[in-house]
Amino acid sequence: MCRFCVDKTDYIDYKDVRVMMMAIPERGKIQPRRLSGACAKHQRKLTTAVKRARQLALIPYVTD
Ligand SMILES: [Zn+2]
Hints:
This protein is mainly α. It is built from 4 helices and no strands. The chain has helices at residues 3-6, 17-23, 33-36, 40-55. The chain has one domain: CATH 4.10.640.10. 48% of the residues lie in helices and 0% in strands. The longest helix is centred in the last third of the chain and has 16 residues, at 40-55. The site of zinc ion has 7 residues, from helix 1 and helix 4.
């Protein structure tokens, strides 16, 4: 079940660091769909949001 669909989230906010950090649990890599459980639509939005957040240095490219 896609948690973004559950929350009826239409827009994933790249400024929401909490959501961004959940999306990159392992060494800054974006969580694949099979682990995140997000549907195709929301996974795509999530990926876009994470990339935007990285450019703005809200989240790291690589974490240790
Ligand atoms: Zn969804």
